[in-house]
Amino acid sequence: MVQGRGREILGKLAHWSIVVVFSVLLAFPFYWMLITSFKRTGDLYNLKNNPFVFNEKPTFEHLQLLFHDTL
Question: How far apart are CA 57 and CA 62, in angstroms?
Fold first, then answer.
């Protein structure tokens, strides 16, 4: 009986581990789009900057270009 309970807990742990890994993998492109839409152009092209955080102040420059200066 104790062995069955341990197997059940291990199964649930494996299930939730897989769910978390796939959730992170599937959410990453949306995180990347959100971060890069608010970065400055110089921040995007500088290879010395960390691409996952804001190295310069966030800006609405790219969103303004998208919504006001494109068809």
Answer: 13
